[in-house]
TrEMBL record:
It is found in: Cell inner membrane. The lineage of its organism: Bacteria, Pseudomonadati, Pseudomonadota, Gammaproteobacteria, Enterobacterales. GO terms for cellular component: plasma membrane. This is HAAAP family serine/threonine permease. The chain crosses the membrane at residues 25-45, 51-69, 102-122, 142-159, 166-186, 206-230, 251-274, 301-323, 344-365, 371-395, 407-426. It catalyses: L-serine(in) + H(+)(in) = L-serine(out) + H(+)(out).
């Protein structure tokens, strides 16, 4: 029997760590804001084309897939010693400098392509709004993209804390509007999806297995908030100390439940109100489901509201993903300079990172590649390596994470990670 008596200091510490603070709510909304962006706005397109069965399966696995993977990544970040400043430092501590560089590079390329996706998405959203809702001639694409990305970079220059607060504030009206749009579409629901035939076996084009196989990367991408996990875990570690893991898990549960419920209601509502031909047209036009809805329904109110919501959603996610992409790039540049014995100036690296993000995002937004193509070929599979496979590998190899071994959820995360990663092979073949 444990006879250890809890001291007043211990009781105060436990009460403080278990209470819900304002900062916890801010981070919960920040996590939600990072995840809910272009991925969610394109999820109904990919999910709905396959019919009802794949959609139901994705709805069932959405929460466990999202929570277990992000909790594992958060635990990896928290497993580092007090000298670690971010996930790249933690990986280098556990796996050595060489492996640390490889993982840092992977971390950067897991997030950076998503930033490019948001640059394309926000340009297309505003261009569609000007053309279809305002009935004006949009500026040249290169100029419009530059104006939009410069505006986002201006917000970013205000600092990380401001970014998180901006995202958390924008989440509340966004959730309300997302639910409203889902409810607004209910009178347009039809039973077409229940009559669509789909083979229940086989991996051929149009079959259930192939549909799920290609949908998993988009699903991974749609609920991904890994870019902000490093900053989130480090912030909670500084605030809660040894009890940061329990607090992070609690915040993740609340945030993930909120995002899965709101997103899947919105997805089902969109799919039930549009035909497969409509969804295929939205994919061909390379625009979000909200922009398509604004153009599809002859309703001035929805035509005005949907693009604004899309703009806010993409803006939130751009800001959140910039934190992760910039963190990875600065770490790569800093390590390269130290290896050559050159001085490292954090301010200079931050400015160089910002300039690179601005120019590259602007160029890609001007070219306008397929958004879903980037997600399927780069976003989902690379995120799977970082978010699903890396933490699971660390759990089985790193002594500091040994206590998490043997959990059934680990095997589930392994499976989803390999499915998302293998989808790129399927696309190439």
């Amino acid at each position: 029997m444990n006879t250890t008596q809890a001291t007043p200091e211990t009781l105060v510490e436990r009460a403080t760590s278990s209470s819900w603070r304002k900062s916890d709510a801010v981070w919960m909304m920040g996590l939600y804001g990072t995840a809910i962006g272009a991925g969610v706005l394109f999820l109904p397109i990919n999910a709905g084309i396959g019919g009802l069965v794949p959609l139901l399966i994705m709805a069932l696995i959405a929460f466990p897939m999202t929570f277990f993977a992000h909790r594992a990544l958060c635990r990896l970040v928290l497993s580092g010693n007090s000298a670690c400043r971010d996930i790249t430092d933690v990986v280098e501590q556990h796996f050595g400098p060489r492996m640390g560089q490889v993982i840092t590079l992977l971390y950067f390329f897991a997030i950076y392509p998503i930033l490019l996706v948001y640059g394309v998405a926000i340009t297309n959203t505003v261009d569609s709004f000007i053309t279809h809702q305002l009935h004006l001639t949009a500026p040249p694409r290169a100029l419009l993209a530059l104006i939009l990305i410069l505006g986002l970079m201006t917000v970013i220059r205000l600092g990380k804390e401001i970014i998180v607060k901006v995202m958390s504030v924008l989440v509340f009206p966004f959730v309300a509007v997302l639910l409203f749009l889902g409810a607004f579409l209910m009178p347009h629901w039809s039973a077409d999806i229940f009559t669509r035939a789909m083979p229940f076996s086989g991996a051929g084009q149009g079959g259930l297995l192939s549909t799920l196989w290609l949908a998993v990367p988009v699903l991974v991408f749609s609920f991904n908030h890994s870019p902000i996990i490093s900053a989130f875990a480090m912030s909670k570690k500084a605030e809660y100390g040894d009890r940061a893991e329990q607090k992070c898990s609690r915040i993740l549960v609340c945030s993930n439940i909120l995002m899965v419920l709101t997103v899947m209601f919105f997805v089902f509502s969109c799919v039930l109100s549009l035909s497969p031909e409509d969804l295929a047209a939205a994919k061909a036009q390379n625009i979000s489901i909200l922009s398509f809805l604004a153009n599809h329904f002859n309703n001035p109110f929805i035509g005005l509201l949907a693009p604004i919501v899309a703009f806010v959603a993409i803006t939130k996610s751009f800001l959140g993903h910039y934190l992760g992409a910039s963190e990875g790039l600065i770490s790569l540049m800093g390590k390269a300079l130290r290896k050559r014995g050159k001085p490292v100036h954090d301010v200079t690296l931050d400015r160089l990172s910002g300039l690179f993000m601005l120019v590259s995002t602007w160029l890609v937004a001007t070219v306008n590649p397929s958004i879903l193509g980037i997600i399927e070929m780069l976003g989902g599979p690379i995120i799977a390596m970082l978010l699903f496979l890396l933490p699971m590998y660390a759990i089985h190899k790193v002594p500091a994470m040994a206590r998490y071994r043997g959990a059934a959820s680990n095997y589930f995360v392994w499976a989803v990670g390999f499915i998302a990663l293998s989808a790129i092979v399927y696309k190439l073949l």
